Amino acid sequence: MALNIEINSLEGIINIKGPIHDPISKRRINKVFVYNPQSMLYQAAINEETINLLKIIGVTDEQKHDLNRLINPIKVEEEFEKRQLLFIEDYGAFDEYGIEPKKEVKGLGFIVETRAFGLCRLISKDERGTAHLKSLDKNQSHQIGEGNYSRYEIPEDTICDHPNGPCTCLSLVKRDANWSSPFEYKVEFEDGRSKKVKESDLTPLKIAKPKDPLRALCTLQHSSLYHFQAREKLNLAYIDLIRRGSGVKSLLTSRIDLHPHQAYVAGTIMLDDKQRYLLADEVGLGKTIEAGLIIHDFISRNKDSKILILAPGALLQQWFAEMYSKFIGIVFKIADLSGFRDTDPKKQKRVIASFNAALEAPESILNQEWDLVIVDEVHHLLHHKPLYDLVQKISFQDRGLLLLSALPAKHREEEYFDLLALLEPNKYVKDDPKDLTALREEFKHLFERQQEIGSRINIAKRRLGKFKDGDEKSASKVTKQIQEILKIPVISQDSILKEKLLAIEESMPANKNFVDLVESILFHVSDYYRINRRIIRNRREKLIENKQLKRISRGVKQLTYKPDQYEIEAINALEEFLRHLRASDIPEGILLILAKQLLQSSIHPDLLQATLVISENQLPPDNLSDNFAGLDDLVSYSEWDDLLENCWHYARPFINNDLLANCLETCGAWSDQKKDENKRLKKWISFLKKKHSEDPKEKFILFAGFPKLACLLYEQLSEIFGDEEIARFHYGMDELFDEVREREIKEEEVRRFKVNPQTWLLICDETGGEGRNFQFASELFHYDLPLQASKIEQRIGRLDRLGREKDDVLSTTIVSKGSKEESWFKCLKEGLGIFKQSISGLEFGLREIEENVARNFISEDSQLLEDMTILIKEKVTTERALDESQAQMDEASFNSSYAQSYLKAQLKKKQEIHFERTFTNYFKQISDRKSFSTPTDPTFAEGIFEFLPKYIKDLNLDVLEKQDERKGTFRREIAQERPNYEFFSPGNEFFEFITKAMRQDVFGRSYAIECLAESNPWRGFEFSYRTLIKNQEEHLDMANLGFIEHFFNDLPINLLINENGELLDEEKNRLVLSFRKELKWKEENKIWFDLYKTKGGCLEKYYPGWKKLIIKLEKISRKKAKDAFEEKLNPLVKEKQNALGEKIQQLRHAKPDGWKESVENSEKLRSIMTTWDIQLDAVGFLSINGGIRNV
Questions:
Q1: pLDDT value, residue 72
Q2: How far apart are CA 278 and CA 441, in angstroms?
Q3: Which letter, b or e, does each residue of 523-542 get, where b requires 16 or more Cβ atoms within 10 Å of its Cβ?
Q4: What does the alpha-carbon distance between residue 680 and residue 819 come to, in Å, rounded to a whole number?
Q5: Residue 832 has what DSSP assignment?
C-alpha cells in the first residue's frame, strides 16, 4: 500500500497516513520526529512506549528535498559535510541510502541518571563516545559525554509504566554493574499479578524515595554535601530553638517581647499537670497575653484543641485581635456575630462569646467538651447570678480553666470564697445549704490565717533546704516549725498531719525518711490550707522593686469652659427628667443604667438627642433581656442599642412625657447652634492647636468613648485640621460592619498615625485598646469622662503599659466649669487617685462608689457629689491598705529565677537571623528557584520572605500545596509591626511542616564525598544518632508532653568509623567532624567532590560489598552511640523518676483534689521515660585523599 507522507518543516514533524507499525512495540505510528544525530537538533521518537525509530519506505524525491531542508538548518550547514536521516530497527542504525549498521553499543535502552537532565534512557552512542539520551519525564533529547551518567536502580515502591499497564516495582532481582545486560525487576501490576521484567520495558513515573538515610546511601541515592549541610544546620538550629522552650514551646511563638513575669506565669501553668488557675495580675501587666500563651500551647500540641473564651461584649474585639495578631494568626469565631447555636465546635474549634450570648444559649456551651475555657472579668460575675451559675457548671467539668479576675481585698472573705468556688467547685461547693454555711465559716477562719500559714511554710522549706545541704542541726528547727504549723487552729485537728508529725518525732534524730515525711506535710498543708496556691497575681510595685519594670508616673491637667445658656438648660432639663424617674417606682438598676448613659451622652447635643429619641419607641425590642443587669458597664458598641432599648422599655411606664418633651426641646435648641458656637468643642480646638504648635512631632490620642462620638469628632476636626493630620480608630469604620474589612481599615489608620509625620492626632473610642497599645504616644486627652472609672483606667493603660519609653503618662480633660461633671473629675483625681496610680486592687469597691456617684449626679443637692471626694478617698485608702497587707498571700506570684529560665525561650535578634538563614537556605534546596522571594517593604529593608510551597520538589505537601503563598517573617520585631504577616515560629503551619519534613524526610540526611586536602588519607563513614521515645503516642497531659519533648530533644551524636570498623577516638572524631563541617564550595587547599549519583558508581567498584559494609559498620556505631546516650541520659532519667516517685507518694498521702489524675499522669511519665531509644538521623561517606574517584 502506498504511503501518504506529509512533512511539516517548521515543526519538525512527519505525518504518515497508512498502516505503519513499529517492529518492536507492534503499535501503529502516526507521527515521527526527524532526528539529526550529529547536530542533535531533533529527538527521534515514535511514541512514549518505545525508543526505536521507524524506517520510512517510499519517500519521494520532493519529500527528500523537504527532509533535507528540515534536517540541515543554516546554522550548522558549514559545520558538517554530510547530513543523515537516521532510522533504527532492532537497535541497528541505518541511513536512508542503506549504509551498513553501526557497531552495536552496550546499554542501549538502559535507564541512566545524570545530574543535568535527571533520569534518561540511552538511545545511542557516536564514535566519540558521546551518548544520546531521551529524558523520561520531559520527552526531550540530550547528548552527554561519557562518565557523566550512571546506571540507575529503580527504588522499591516506585510506580512505573509497562507495555502491559501500570505496575509497582517490588525489588531488584538481577543487577549487572558492567553494562552487559539490563537490570531485571520484580513488579506487581494493578490486578495483583507479579512478574520479572527488564528495565528497557519500564518507565518510572513516580519515584519512591529511600525509606531512610541508610538505604539512601546503600543504593547510592544520597544527597549532595551541600544539601546535607543545609539540613544539618537547620536541624541543629531547630534543636536549640526547642530546648530554649524549656518544655513550653509556645513561649517561642508570641509576637510580643515577653516580660519576665509573663514568661513566669505561662511557664508555671504550662508545666503544671492541671491547668486550672486564676490570673489576677494588676491592670496593664498583660493577663490577656499570659492567657494567649496558654491557648497557643494547647493548639501547638494539639491543633484540634477546642477552646472557648467568655468575655464581656466590650472586650470581644480585643480578644479576637490579640489572639490573631500576637499568636501566629490564631483565628477565633465570634459567636455573637453568627449566633452561638450556629457555632458548631466540630467545624469551628475556637470560639469567643460575650456573656450575653452565653446566657442566651447555655446548652450550646455545656454540651461541648472544651479542652480549655477562659473567662475574663470574672469578678463581675459575682453580681450576676445566672452568669455565675453557668460558669460554675462549666467549671465542674474536667477541663483546662483560666479565670481572669481582680482579687477582693482582705476583708472581703465572701467574695473571695465565691471566686474560689468557680476555680475549685469540688472543694468549695456544697448542695446542702447547712454544709455550705459551715464551709463558709470554716473558710473565713482559714482566710484570716493565710499570712501566718504562708510564713511558717516558707521558714520550714528554707530550714529543710539547709538540712539537705548537710546541716544536720537544722532537723530540730524543721521539726519545731512543723509543730508550730500544726498548732494553728484551722490545721490542729487534721488527723493525717498529726500522724505524720508523730512519725517525724519518732524518727529523731533524723533518718532517711525524715525528708519524705516533712515534704509530705508541707505538700498537704499547701494543698489543703493555702487558698492561693492556684492564684497567680503579679503586682506592679513588687515588679518595680525587683527591677523587672520601670516606674511610670501619671499626671493630669484640667481645663474648663463656661457653658452657654443652651447647654445649661439642656442639662438642667435632663437632670429634672432623671430626678422624676428616681422618685417613681422604677427599678433602681434600670434607673442607674439610663442615668449613666444619658449623663455621658450630654457631652454633645446630637448624642443626647439621639439617646433620648430611642425612648419614643413604643414597641418592645425583639431581644428583650435582663442579661445586661449588673453587666451594663461591659457591653460592646454592637450591644449598646439593645441595652438602651431594653432599659427604655422597662422605664416607659414611669416616664413623664412632658419632662421628656422638654428634654428633647432644649436639646434640639442646643443642637441647632452653629458648630463654631459649641463652647466645649471650641475649647478643645483651641487646646489642640496650641499643643500641636508647641511640638509638631509629638503624637496625641483623643479618647471619645460614648457611641458615635469619636466618629462625630473626626468629621468636625477633619474639617479644621485636614484629613492627613488626623487618624481614627472606632467602632463602625466599615459602613457594612464587615469585621475583616474594619480590621484592615483600623490597621491602616494605626500605621498611618505611627509612621506618618504629618499625622499627629488619633481619635479613639473605647475600642482603642482592642489589640493595640499606644506606648509611643506622648499624651492622651479625654473628651468625655464616663461614670465607669475602669474605662478611664483602661484608656490610661493604653499608654501606661509595658514597654513605654517615656517616664510619664499625662492626661488632659476639659470640663464644664462649676458643673457636676467637674465634681466627678474631682472624685476621679483626688478621691480615686486614678490620674496618679492604677486603681488595681479597688475593683470590688468601685461598683458601690460608681452607683453612689450616679445617684448624686441626679440629686438636686450638687454638694452631695462634691462631698463624695473625701468619702471616696477614705474608702480607697482603706482598700489599698488591706490589699497591700494581702501581698504575702500571693502564693504563686513572681519568681525571678524561674522567670529567667522560661524567658530564655525567646530568641534574641541575632539568633532569629541565624535561624532565618538556616531555614531559608534549606528551603532553597528542596524547591525551585521561583518558590522563594524577598518582597520589599517601606520600613524593613530585609527580614520579610514569601514562600510558594507549591513549587517544593520532593516533599509531600498535603494542605500546603493548596496555598498560593506564605508571606511572613522570622523576626519578632517585624511581626509586631506587620500583624498581617505570618510569624514563622513553632506553631505556624508552614514552619511546622518544613521542620517536620526536615526531621523525617530522607532529603539531606546522607552524603558521599571525596576531598583532596593537605591531610593524611582517611576513608570511612559518619553516623549521626538522635534519641527517640517509643511510646510517645500514649496519652499524656499537656505539661508532661512538653517535658518529654524538651528532655529528649538532645543534640545528635556523630560518630566516625573507618572502613575497617575502627571508631575514631574522641579527639580525632572531633577533628575530622570539624573538617567535614567546614568544607565550602571554594576553599584553598581543599578541593572536594560529591560522589553523587553519576560518580557514585565508583564506590561500588571500590567496595564490592558496599551495602553489607555500611550495614555492618552502622551496627558497630549504633552500640557506641547507645552507650554514650545512656551515660548522659540515665542519671537524668533516674533523678526525674525519683522526683516523680516522691510526688506520687505525696499525692497519695495528701489526697488533694484531682490527686488520682495527677498520680496517673505521673506514672505514665515514669513509664514512658524508660522507653527511650536511639535512631539513625543521618549517614555519610567521607574520603580524604582516598583515591576513590580514580577507580
A1: 40
A2: 23
A3: bbbbbbbbbbbbbbbbbbeb
A4: 13
A5: I
Residues 980 and 976: their CA atoms lie apart, in Å, by 10
* Reduced DSSP (H G I as helix, E B as strand, rest coil) percent helix, strand, coil of the chain, to 5: 50, 15, 35
* Residue 88 predicted with pLDDT over 80: no
Q: By three-state DSSP, how is residue 20 classified?
A: coil
Query: Would you say 1089 and 1186 are in contact if contact means Cβ atoms under 8 Å apart?
Result: no
Judged by DSSP in three states, 947 sits in strand
Distance CA 1027, CA 958 (A): 27
**Cell 513499529 identifies what position?**
22
Select from 80, 79, 85, 6 the least CA-distant residue to 42.
Answer: 85
3-class SS letters over 1017-1062: CEEEEEEEEEEEECCCCCCCCHHHHHHHHHHCCCCCEEEEEECCCC
Closest CA to 544 of 836, 259, 254: 259
The stretches of 351-384 forming alpha helices (DSSP H) are 355-360, 362-366
Q: In the numeric block, which cell numbers belong to residue 1078? A: 567546614
Asked whether the beta carbons of 781 and 813 are under 8 A apart, the reply is: yes
CA 768 to mean position of chain CA atoms:
24
Strand order in the sheet with 159-161: 194-198, 184-189, 167-174, 159-161, 203-206
CA gap 75, 312 in Å, rounded? 80
* Phi/psi at 921 (5° precision): -65, -40
Distance from C-alpha of 1008 to C-alpha of 1022, rounded to nearest angstrom: 10
1083 bridge partner residues: 1086
Instruction: Give the Cβ contact number of residue 1056 at 10 Å.
Output: 22
Determine the Cα–Cα distance for residues 598 and 571; give it in Å rounded to an integer: 10
Q: Are 330 and 296 in contact (CB under 8 A)?
A: yes
pLDDT surpassing 60 at residue 165:
yes
Is the distance from CB of 968 to CB of 944 less than 8 angstroms? yes
- Please report, as a single letter, which amino acid is at residue 1107: K
Cis? peptide before 345, omega within 30° of 0: no
Q: Give CA torsion, residues 753, 759, 763, 768, to 10 deg.
A: 10
CA distances from 949 to 930, 958, 965 (A): 10, 10, 7
Stretch among 164-173, 189-198, 230-239, 961-970 having the lowest mean pLDDT: 961-970
Average pLDDT over residues 267-283: 84
Q: Could you please report the per-residue DSSP string of 285-301?
A: S-HHHHHHHHHHHHHHH
Tell me what pLDDT residue 959 has: 46
Strand partners, 142: 133
pLDDT tens for 878-913 read 887 766 655 555 544 555 555 666 666 677 888 899
Sequence-distant (6+) residues with CB within 8 A of 217 are: 1006, 1008, 1110, 1179, 1180, 1181
Condensed to tens digits (0 to 9), the pLDDT of residues 678-706 reads 899 999 999 999 999 998 999 999 999 99
pLDDT band at 1101 (very low <50, low <70, confident <90, very high): confident
Mean pLDDT of the chain: 80
Distance CA 370, CA 352 (A): 12
The pTM assigned to this predicted structure is: 0.72
The closest of 644, 640, 643, 641 to 627, measured between CA atoms, is 643
| CA distances in angstroms from 297 to 213, 265, 1152, listed in the order given | 32, 13, 26
Give the pLDDT confidence score for residue 954 in this predicted structure.
Answer: 63
